[in-house]
Amino acid sequence: MTVVAARNIAIIAVLALGVAFLPRGGDVASAVFTAITMAFLAVISLAVCRAAQANRMTLSSLPDSRRFVLYSAVGLIVLLIAGASTMFDTGLGTLAWILLLGSAGVGIWLVWSEAKSL
């Protein structure tokens, strides 16, 4: 085992001890998880913005109908991320979430593949 791996395991063990034995440790863990999730979503948003800026000409050259499909699919993904915790409360909601995410992915893929062929 390398030193880096041992250090990472030690960090996880210390965090787990804090959650297990400190009072209100679960609340702290939830706050840390929320902060990490928000940072992850911010990085994804930044990557999407950079990709849109880099491909501004391609996006502008798309027909209005294809641009509508692309922006609608991205908006659907944003709404799915925002409502994931509520939708995952039931089995039907989870199934709907998966189907909607798949349809948004198909929409993005179709627009992307058509844009590559132009």
Number of domains: 2
Fraction of helical residues: over 70%
Overall pLDDT metric: 89
Radius of gyration (CA) equals 20 Å
Description:
This protein is an all-alpha fold. It has 2 domains: 54 residues, no CATH class; 63 residues. The chain contains 6 helices and no strands. α1 crosses α2. It is elongated and about 60 Å long.
Features:
single chain; 118 residues; mainly alpha; 2 domains; 6 helices
Short characterization:
The chain has 118 residues and is mainly alpha-helical. The chain contains six helices and no strands.
Strand and helix map with partners:
Layout lengths: L2 H19 L3 H30 L1 H6 L2 H19 L1 H4 L3 H27 L1
Helix pairs in contact: 1-2, 4-6
